[in-house]
């Protein structure tokens, strides 16, 4: 099982709702984020420009660098669901996972003394029914959650609607195998590698 | 990225302690003063303890260090550092125990060999933990080489200082006899490794990147860490070594310490991350792609 | 203090007696009483359903409570448009309902205005004080001394203020919206198409909903080309989960193409097939170029234009009105005339291609039409050269070639052509005329242009059209009729106004009956009718700007000047119901002077703002939407209208439809019912208690009681059957007179040439019938282009090199008008206004990304952060329009209005307006900029918004006061 997010950038309007939905669901204080929405562009020169938004959070790598560097196995990949999670009881706050994450989507929580990141709302999704708050509340229906191995899951069905050239992952320098897929059709904007 | 001071200090102090331990081991093998060696090992142990405390300060809670120890077998970068720290400490302690009295030469020689190996390794592996793909500015073996070099240089001068401060029965500084009379050449070797490591890492970062951290690189790492350290080490090959060994060693320690700290600060300051998505503040926007 | 059931109305008297001054930052002391139902028991999560009221879209939501405390809000997946999505405004209600700024008890100012010193008082005392102040002013200075302000903020209260105003006979109600939001588009569509339709409300939701839901399987049923035009329309911001979601579905699921006309690369523009970054203020020139290109290249729907619009009508050059057949042939017998004399279907005059002559043009089934009307023609009628309305339009559009429009609008002519041809050649299409035009001098002419484009293309009541009638009510049995001014019930109440589609005799009969009803109640009906007419004439700005009658508001500039100068009279006591007026009205520094002149200001609102601190004397706390019940409009999602259902209730907050009733009752009691104009008027829109309101709303929903409605938790809405909701081409359906239904307009066709504009200017028709309001200059009956008064174009009269840049505004999904500035999680991602600026322009001023910029117009200066982007033309600026930073807490010695730090409306203008609707210039004026430093009181870092974090989540759940 490989549970993760799929984000359809053809649909995303950059409204920031997922940020607030996440913060409220996960009780994050001011200044703390599990996700951010980054405007990519506009690129080009006015008026020949293009732009899209890149909602960013843990990419649920299948070969996660954060897990490899963790000295206490606090960062782990759940063998059952494939979800990359942090056991806060085990985390000693050494922050090596922050240095090791290629996407910079982990934050150190000074108060709790642990590293935090997107949990795919495990408190909601653990029993296999619910979807993360950012998916549920997405204004434009741009976010999907489910098992990439299940052809009937929301993510698989949405992916199936699009050709290869519209399906992207963040660049993967060393075989971390990010699971999260982004859909961006060339007619809206060309995918940028960002590195 | 923010400079992680506990890690800067830990890696330099533990690495320097390792180098002192290695020098003590060499002295045991090549010849020198038992007093100098024992004093140096005491110093090394002290550096391990202080360095270790520094690294604990990096953790959210000191008690978390216990978790790190109990997970030694994860073979993560941190656990390797911890293992080497422990091994070095044990080697040093064993050496002190074994050399309380004369004799036990066989065991002492074994410990001395281990001390050399662990002492050098800890300097290298304190830097090696940072070689990760997600940090393009750390992803180079020149980084642990630079960590090793700066550790060796600091430890070497520190050992020279201990030697200079220790009097022989003839009421002369013990320096001349240390390492079978090869103390200063050994210091020079360390200084060369230090210079090569720093310059190699600087070259890896590239002139643009180091220019953005001009004071740290040119002032701290190059002027002190390379030029200063080399100058002191070369001076050690001259008559100065006999005239003012302590002053030379103090100058060397100072240059090596500044160079070592500057090199580590540079590493943190130049850390960009691979795709550091959360580094985009408010408003989050990537322009000029 | 004892626990248990204390009467809330009396409770605070005790607290007030302690005389504690209450500051904004330190909330009022908590009530200790606890609702027992919530106090006992284990923590169980309870699910509630209601609809958000954070903007006008009212998305359905699920809310969860534990021990009565709201712990989670999420979108209701059953919502037909939002499908579970909700925006960050909605989600943030969980922070604002428990915000330290949410006021829980009535407060009386005890210090000077601006000192933020308050005393908590009981509702009895508050209502008494409000009534006393109103009564005193009315007694001393007459009924016009009282005025009200509404809309634009939380938008809980809109037209309803008129009920309160006419209790005393007052006539000024300042709507922050209206002139600057939707009213102009409402007038145009209502008078020209016969109903207030989507184009009026920026409601892409409805037409997007149609396309989506007509093809429920999410795939296209045919290969028709469908194209939307979003002209200054931002559903992704103004209705992110609602129309924004619908637009996304249309684009991604159904391949609907989009053309976006917007100076800035909005979210809509980023996804558009063609983006036309029009120069702010030049839209009408662009519209005329579309009209010109469509006519010149025969791209129009000839049959629709001939038979369903008034463009073939010959226009009398003297009156500028269409000839009626009877004017040319006095003995003409109109075959469409109603033998019963109730309904009016006029016959007009056209130039007939069959006979090459001027002929009568009665309303018929098109197939039965005796004539073949020529759309573009000039002919001699009654001895005079007369043009058809089509010809007049054609000549107006004649100069606007693609090249001319390209030059004026700062666009590539080829891209204009691409847009027009994509749209004109589509099988189905619709144009959403966004709020942009309601913010500038073209507020009457741009909607006419949008109408003309769609009417020429036959995009009326067709799939995708913005001009869409929904529901059984519009499928009338008879010739459809339309009464203007229905947004306020008072025109009808006092017997004023013409119902379009009825004969004069029938109109007179209806109005006489109203007068007679008053007589029967012992009042002088004629006198009341006359007083009402006179008061409408006396309304500020009503003579020059007669379009304000549409929503029974007043002209903002004239009101402001009257308050500061006392001419022609001075309104003195204000009942404000909308939020931070500094944010939403410009020029705000001038408005500040006017507010400072007020004798007494009452405000009802859920939370305090810098306006409260600076200006308000008595604050009446109303409910946040989690505490709110309502079935008032808005609340529509596709074919559903959602009720809003209380989830919790804190302190002594009162439903906003109840407090005005209490205040009015108090004032009437003090004045004496016999001394006020209409002592019962306030009882029409407002309610004595929440129970009374619930009963009325339950009845509207067809339920036996509010509780009955609540009990069916999955159906807290009313629903229009889908077949009725999506009935296209209703105008073609036959009705009782054997003719097609047509439209509820004067001609029963689409009045592309707006006679209504001319009649309005000349007599105030249809509102003022049977009286004539004094005439003013004619309002343009068609789309015309006028260069904005302040122009960025060298050589134009309004060009001033000192102010070389043109500025406009747009919406963000983060805020609705002036609201939610106190929501901490919103503010940390949108801490300060962003000034979007092209890097080339920024470089000229040495401005870099995120530098602070001082923006200065001829009215004043404020500040924003530079956001460099290639998504806007050099020389053009855009920023969000309603900033009010609200960055005050107890650490500051003084509290400022905030607008001089960050407040767009300091710069906007009311000295040049749209003549018909008194629309101020909130967009398309000119400014200069310079680099500056961050204003001292402006917070930008996450942690700085800590003073906004919730502090009231431990508050007990309380019972209603009224």
Automatic annotation (TrEMBL), chain A:
Listed GO MF terms: 4 iron, 4 sulfur cluster binding; metal ion binding
Annotated CDD domains: PsrB
Keywords: 4Fe-4S, Iron, Iron-sulfur, Metal-binding
InterPro entries reported for this sequence: 4Fe4S_Fe-S-bd, 4Fe4S_Fe_S_CS, ET_IronSulfur_Cluster-Binding
Pfam family, one: Fer4_11
Chain ranges of the 4Fe-4S ferredoxin-type domain: 3-33, 49-80, 82-111
Protein name stated in the entry: 4Fe-4S ferredoxin
TrEMBL record, chain B:
Spans through the membrane: 6-29, 41-60, 72-98, 110-132, 144-162, 183-204, 216-240, 247-269
GO biological process assignments: anaerobic electron transport chain
Alphabetized UniProt keyword annotations: Membrane, Transmembrane, Transmembrane helix
GO molecular function: dimethyl sulfoxide reductase activity
Superkingdom assignment: Bacteria
GO cellular component: dimethyl sulfoxide reductase complex; plasma membrane
InterPro entries in UniProt: DmsC
Keyword Ligase belongs to the record: no
Any Pfam family: DmsC
Keyword check for Protein transport: no
This protein's name: DMSO reductase
Species for this entry: Adlercreutzia hattorii
Lineage of origin: Bacteria, Bacillati, Actinomycetota, Coriobacteriia, Eggerthellales
UniProtKB/TrEMBL annotation, chain C:
Keyword line: Iron, Iron-sulfur, Metal-binding, Molybdenum, Oxidoreductase, Signal
Superkingdom of this protein's organism: Bacteria
Domain 4Fe-4S Mo/W bis-MGD-type: 45-101
The UniProt record lists the keyword Phosphoprotein: no
Pfam family for this entry, one: Molybdop_Fe4S4
Cofactor: Mo-bis(molybdopterin guanine dinucleotide)
InterPro entries, alphabetized: Asp_de-COase-like_dom_sf, MoPterin_dinucl-bd_dom, Mopterin_OxRdtase, Mopterin_OxRdtase_4Fe-4S_dom, Mopterin_OxRdtase_prok_CS, Prok_Mopterin_Oxidored, TAT_signal, TAT_signal_bac_arc
MF-aspect GO terms: iron-sulfur cluster binding; metal ion binding; molybdopterin cofactor binding; oxidoreductase activity
ATP-binding among keywords: no
Family: Belongs to the prokaryotic molybdopterin-containing oxidoreductase family.
Stated name of the protein: 4Fe-4S Mo/W bis-MGD-type domain-containing protein
UniProt source species: Adlercreutzia hattorii
Upper lineage: Bacteria, Bacillati, Actinomycetota, Coriobacteriia, Eggerthellales
């Amino acid at each position: 099982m490989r549970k993760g997010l799929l984000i359809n950038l053809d649909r995303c309007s950059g409204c920031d709702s997922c940020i607030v939905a996440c913060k409220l669901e996960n009780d994050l204080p001011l200044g703390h984020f599990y996700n951010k929405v980054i405007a990519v562009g506009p690129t080009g020169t006015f008026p020949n420009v293009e732009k899209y938004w890149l909602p960013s959070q843990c990419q649920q790598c299948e070969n996660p660098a954060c897990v490899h560097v963790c000295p206490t196995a606090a960062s782990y990949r759940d063998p059952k669901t494939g979800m990359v999670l942090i056991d806060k009881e085990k985390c000693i706050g050494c922050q090596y996972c922050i240095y090791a994450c290629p996407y910079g989507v982990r934050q150190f929580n000074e108060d709790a003394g642990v590293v935090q990141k997107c949990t795919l709302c495990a408190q909601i999704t653990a029993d296999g029914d619910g979807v993360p708050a950012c998916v549920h509340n997405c204004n434009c229906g741009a976010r999907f959650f489910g098992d990439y191995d299940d052809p009937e899951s929301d993510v698989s069905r949405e992916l199936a609607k699009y050709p290869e050239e519209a399906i992207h992952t963040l660049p993967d320098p060393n075989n971390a195998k990010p699971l999260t897929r982004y859909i961006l059709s060339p007619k809206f904007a060309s995918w940028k590698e960002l590195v | 990225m923010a400079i992680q001071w506990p890690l800067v200090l830990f890696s330099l102090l533990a690495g320097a302690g390792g180098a002192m331990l290695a020098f003590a081991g060499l002295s045991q093998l090549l010849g020198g003063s038992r007093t100098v060696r024992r004093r140096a090992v005491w110093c090394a142990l002290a550096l391990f303890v202080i360095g270790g405390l520094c690294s604990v300060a990096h953790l959210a809670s000191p008690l978390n260090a216990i978790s790190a120890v109990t997970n030694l077998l994860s073979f993560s970068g941190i656990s390797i550092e911890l293992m080497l720290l422990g091994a070095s400490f044990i080697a040093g302690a064993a050496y002190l125990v074994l050399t309380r009295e004369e004799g036990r030469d066989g065991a002492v020689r074994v410990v001395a060999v281990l001390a050399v190996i662990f002492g050098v390794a800890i300097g290298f592996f304190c830097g090696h933990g940072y070689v990760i793909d997600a940090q393009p500015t750390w992803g180079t073996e020149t980084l642990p080489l630079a960590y090793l070099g700066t550790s060796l240089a600091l430890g070497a001068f520190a050992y020279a200082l201990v030697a200079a401060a220790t009097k022989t029965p003839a009421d002369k500084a013990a320096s001349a006899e240390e390492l079978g009379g090869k103390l200063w050449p050994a210091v020079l070797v360390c200084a060369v490794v230090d210079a090569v490591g720093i310059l190699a890492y600087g070259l890896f970062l590239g002139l643009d990147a180091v220019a953005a951290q001009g004071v740290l690189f040119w002032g701290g790492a190059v002027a002190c860490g390379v030029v200063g350290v080399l100058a002191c080490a070369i001076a050690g090959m001259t008559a100065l070594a006999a005239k003012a060994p302590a002053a030379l060693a103090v100058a060397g320690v100072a240059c090596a310490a500044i160079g070592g700290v500057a090199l580590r600060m540079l590493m943190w300051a130049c850390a960009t991350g691979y795709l550091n998505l959360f580094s985009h503040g408010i408003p989050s926007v990537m322009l000029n792609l | 203090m004892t626990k248990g059931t204390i009467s809330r109305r009396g409770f605070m008297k005790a607290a007030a007696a302690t005389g504690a001054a209450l500051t904004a930052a330190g909330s009022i002391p908590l009530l200790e009483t606890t609702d027992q139902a919530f106090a006992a028991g284990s923590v169980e999560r309870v699910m509630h359903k209601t609809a958000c009221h954070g903007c006008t879209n009212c998305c359905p939501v699920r809310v969860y409570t534990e021990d009565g405390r709201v712990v989670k809000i999420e979108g209701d997946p059953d919502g037909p448009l939002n499908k579970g999505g909700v925006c960050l405004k909605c989600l943030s209600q969980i922070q604002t309902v428990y915000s330290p700024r949410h006021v829980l008890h009535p407060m009386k100012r005890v210090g000077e205005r601006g000192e933020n010193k308050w005393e908590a008082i009981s509702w009895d005392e508050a209502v008494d004080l409000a009534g006393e102040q109103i009564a005193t002013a009315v007694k001393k200075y007459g009924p016009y001394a009282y005025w009200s302000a509404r809309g634009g903020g939380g938008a809980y209260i809109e037209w309803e203020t008129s009920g309160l105003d006419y209790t005393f006979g007052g006539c000024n109600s300042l709507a922050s919206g209206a002139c600057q939001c939707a009213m102009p588009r409402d007038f145009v569509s209502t008078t020209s198409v016969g109903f207030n339709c989507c184009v009026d409300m920026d409601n892409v939701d409805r037409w997007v909903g149609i396309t989506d839901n007509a093809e429920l399987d999410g795939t296209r049923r045919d290969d028709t080309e469908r194209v939307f035009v979003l002209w200054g329309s931002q559903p992704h911001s103004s209705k992110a989960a609602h129309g924004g979601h619908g637009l996304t579905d249309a684009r991604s699921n159904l391949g609907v193409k989009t053309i976006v006309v917007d100076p800035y690369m909005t979210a809509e523009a980023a996804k558009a097939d063609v983006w036309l970054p029009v120069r702010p203020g030049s839209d009408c020139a662009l519209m005329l170029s579309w009209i010109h290109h469509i006519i010149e290249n025969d791209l129009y729907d000839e049959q629709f234009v001939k038979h369903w619009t008034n463009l073939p009508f010959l226009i009398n050059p003297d009156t500028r009105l269409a000839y009626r057949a009877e004017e040319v042939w006095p003995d003409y017998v109109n075959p469409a005339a109603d033998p019963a004399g109730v309904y009016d279907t006029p016959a007009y005059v056209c130039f007939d291609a069959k006979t090459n002559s001027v002929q009568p043009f009665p309303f018929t089934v098109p197939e039965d039409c005796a004539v073949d009307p020529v759309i573009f023609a000039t002919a001699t009628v009654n001895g005079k050269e007369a043009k058809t309305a089509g010809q007049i339009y054609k000549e107006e559009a004649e100069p606007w070639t693609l090249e001319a429009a390209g030059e004026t609008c700062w666009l590539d002519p080829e891209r204009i052509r691409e847009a027009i041809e994509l749209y004109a050649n589509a099988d189905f299409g619709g144009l959403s005329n966004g709020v942009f035009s309601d913010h500038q001098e073209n507020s009457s002419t741009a909607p006419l242009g949008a109408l003309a484009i769609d009417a020429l293309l036959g995009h009326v009541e067709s799939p995708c059209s913005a001009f869409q009638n929904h529901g059984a009510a519009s499928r009338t049995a008879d010739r459809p009729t339309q009464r203007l001014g229905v947004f306020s019930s008072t025109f009808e109440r006092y017997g004023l106004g013409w119902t379009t589609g009825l004969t004069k005799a029938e109109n007179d009969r209806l109005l006489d009956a109203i007068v007679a009803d008053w007589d029967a109640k012992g009042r002088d009906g004629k006198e009341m009718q006359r007083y009402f007419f006179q008061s409408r004439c006396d309304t500020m700005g009503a003579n020059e700007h007669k379009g304000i009658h549409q929503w029974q508001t007043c002209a903002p500039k004239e009101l402001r000047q009257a308050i500061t100068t006392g001419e022609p009279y001075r309104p003195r006591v204000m009942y404000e119901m909308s939020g931070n007026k500094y944010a939403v009205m410009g020029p705000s520094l001038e408005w500040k002077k006017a507010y400072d002149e007020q004798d007494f200001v009452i405000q009802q609102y859920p939370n305090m703002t810098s306006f409260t601190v600076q200006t308000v004397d008595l604050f009446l706390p109303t409910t946040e939407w989690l505490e709110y019940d309502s079935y008032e409009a808005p609340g529509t999602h596709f074919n559903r209208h959602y009720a809003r259902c209380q989830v919790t209730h804190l302190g002594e907050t009162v439903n906003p439809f109840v407090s005005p009733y209490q205040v009015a009752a108090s004032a009437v009691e003090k004045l004496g019912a016999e001394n006020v104009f209409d002592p019962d008027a306030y009882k029409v829109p407002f309610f004595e208690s929440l129970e009374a309101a619930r009963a009325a709303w339950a009845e509207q929903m067809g339920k036996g009681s509010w509780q009955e409605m609540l009990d069916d938790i999955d159906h807290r809405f009313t629903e229009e059957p889908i077949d009725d909701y999506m009935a296209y081409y209703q105008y073609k359906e036959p009705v009782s007179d054997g003719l097609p239904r047509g439209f509820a307009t004067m001609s029963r066709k689409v009045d592309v040439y707006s006679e209504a504009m001319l009649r309005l200017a000349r007599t105030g028709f249809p509102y003022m019938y049977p009286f004539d309001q004094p005439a003013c200059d004619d309002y343009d009956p068609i789309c015309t282009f006028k260069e904005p008064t302040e122009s960025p174009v060298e050589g134009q009269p309004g060009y001033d090199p000192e102010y070389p840049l043109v500025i406009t505004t747009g919406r963000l999904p983060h805020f609705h008008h002036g609201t939610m500035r106190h929501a901490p999680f919103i503010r940390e991602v949108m801490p300060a206004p962003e000034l979007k600026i092209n890097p080339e322009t920024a470089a000229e001023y040495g401005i870099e990304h995120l530098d602070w910029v001082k923006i200065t117009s001829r009215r004043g200066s404020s500040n924003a952060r530079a956001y460099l982007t290639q998504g806007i033309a050099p020389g053009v600026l855009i920023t969000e329009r309603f900033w009010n930073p609200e960055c005050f807490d107890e650490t500051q010695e003084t509290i400022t209005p905030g607008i001089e730090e960050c407040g767009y409306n300091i710069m906007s203008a009311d000295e040049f307006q749209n003549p018909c609707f008194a629309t101020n210039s909130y967009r398309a004026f000119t400014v200069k900029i310079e680099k500056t430093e961050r204003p001292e009181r402006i917070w930008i870092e996450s942690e700085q918004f800590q003073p906004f974090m919730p502090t009231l989540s431990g508050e007990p759940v309380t019972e209603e006061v009224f």
